[in-house]
Amino acid sequence: MLRAMGQMASQRRRGGLLGGRLLWLTPPALFLQDDLPPAPPPDTPEFRAMEKDIEDRAKAKGERQRKGETWKLKGNEAMQEGELVKAFKLYTKGIQEDKSSRALLTNRALCSLKLNNKKMKIEKLGEEIEVESFTQAIDDCTKVLDICEFLHDNKGPGIKQSQMKAYMRRAEAFCKTNRLQEAIQDMEKALEEIKFLSTSEKQELISLKEKYQEEMKEKERLKEMREAAGLHNNEDVDEQKEKEQEQEQE
């Protein structure tokens, strides 16, 4: 491929390709060769150096992906054994190796949900910081959805499952942090944006959406009860709710 690029660049310099303008199609936009640095001619030291650089980068990427997969498997084992903190740290090591791994990110998001908002340490911009696990779950799922959209155009092997996991786990994290409207919106987005959903997958998303809607209605009802009764804390509301339930049973 590089040699072909070099040959086309040579043609361009001679004015023999599209009147001296070589078009490069790089979705979602067209870029003109005039806007890019010229490719070196084939069979030159510069061209061979460029080939080697690309090969070295590909090898390094493959090695990082292999290391990330190893950490993922170790994290899965820790999850199965109920060692959630250990699993979180192992997934984090994997993400440090392979930052665009959808599997590592969705797995860490699931682990973060199970940690029940425990504060965990991660590294951001070279600095170790402490984050609540529900917040980390939201961040990881958001990154997965961005990767699906911008790196894969929401197409390709495994994309649908990555999107399903990301939307469902982010919605759960939203729910656990009292952001029910955002949880509902995530289910709506999933139904609208994920392609080729099966009937059972659609029903699962619809059921979750209805669940969050019911929880939101209940939350609003309790708020109205508290305001009407002049109650100011959850214990008073819970006590009032218990009295209502007892009256219904009678």
TrEMBL record:
Protein name (database record): Uncharacterized protein
One GO-annotated biological process of the protein: axonemal dynein complex assembly
Highest taxon of source: Eukaryota
The organism of origin for this protein: Guillardia theta
One of the record's GO cellular component terms: centrosome
InterPro entries: TPR-like_helical_dom_sf (IPR011990), TPR_rpt (IPR019734), TTC12 (IPR043195)
Region feature Disordered, mapped onto this chain: 216-250
SMART domains on file: TPR
